[in-house]
Amino acid sequence: MKNRGIMRGTMLGIFLFYMIIPLVATIIFSVSTRWDHTILPEGLTMEWWQAVTSRRAFGMTLKNSMIVAFWTVLFSVLLVTPTAYWAHMRVPKAKPWIELMTILPFGIPGVILALALIRFYSSVPLPIINTPAILVAACMVISLPFMYRPVNNALEAIDIRSLSEAGLSLGAGWGQILVYVIIPNIIPGIINGALLVFSTVFAEFTLSNLLLGSRFKTFPIYLVEFTRFDGRQASALAVISFTVAWLTSLALLRLVRGRTHLEEAVGAR
User: Fold this and answer.
1) CB of 204 closer than 8 Å to CB of 220
2) Is the pLDDT of residue 266 over 50?
3) pLDDT 10s digits, 32-83
4) Buried b (16+ CB within 10 A) or exposed e, 66-100
């Protein structure tokens, strides 16, 4: 038993080391004056960070990526949560088809998806071509599995049929049951899905570049522009991208945790 614990700790340590080393190397490279002939950097500087953050495009692209990620998360929650609940309760035969739809985005390259959306929306009376709306729609497609899976797992972990029948017996409608009974019980799944969607969309480059490009430049496009002439500045932007996604995730988790503690305190009274 002791040997098994040691082995498990060793494997976990190797995994963490393997995952952290690239991030640490990127951080060091972003503050190094030169790092090509020695094991350690020859010097440290914040010049590259200042160079990338002092440009007007930095704040603009960061804001654009946050806007796209926010609306994608919001619409994904509004679309997936009621659909998954309705499939569980009313049309369980549709669940395999929904599962198939959540697998398809993994097999569709971003280039194919972008061209298909452009061809489709150019022939329908919806003025979303060359607007951020088409980027949000595309990001919802590629992030569908990341929202559906956590929500579906959370629904399967509770007895939604008994909860729904109890709500119906008390005179509540389906909408009230979903909002006041089901969603509070699957909040962890929704939050997990929202974090995955946010991380995916915030770092999305292919769709942003093909659908909008310089018309609505996002942070990944700004980052890629620097990789063409200075890897140290690109490394600084990569660290900033990771930090923003990490801080946003922590803020969201703290917000939800604080709300949960408040509800528990109110319930205890």
Assistant:
1) yes
2) no
3) 877 777 777 777 778 878 888 888 888 898 899 999 999 999 999 999 999 9
4) bebbebbbebbbeebbbebbebbbeeeeeeeebee
**Which tokens is 220 given?**
């990944």
Per the structure block, which two tokens stand in for 86? 């309705």
Start-to-end CA distance of the chain, whole Å, equals 44
Task: Write down the domain spans for the chain.
Answer: 1-45, 56-268
Long-range contacts of 109-112 (CB under 8 A, 24+ apart): 110/142, 110/204, 110/206, 110/207, 110/210, 111/206, 111/210
Query: Is 56-268 a CATH 1.10.3720.10 domain?
Result: yes
What is each CA distance from 243 to 35, 137, 147, 192, 225, in whole angstroms?
23, 26, 22, 18, 20
Residues of the chain above pLDDT 70, percent: 93
Cα–Cα dist 192/158, whole Å: 16
Which single residue is written with the structure tokens 């490009």?
Answer: 213
Write out the DSSP string of 106-119. HHS-HHHHHHHHHH
Q: What is the pTM of this model?
A: 0.81
Q: Which amino acid is at 170?
A: L
Which tokens in the block code for residue 232?
A: 């140290």
- Residue 101 CB contacts under 8 Å (≥ 6 apart), including other chains: 144
CB 133: neighbour CB atoms within 10 A? 15
Give the CA distances from residue 139 to residues 5, 49, 56, 70, 214, in Å, rounded to whole numbers and listed in that order: 42, 29, 25, 11, 18
53/159 Cα distance (integer angstroms): 50
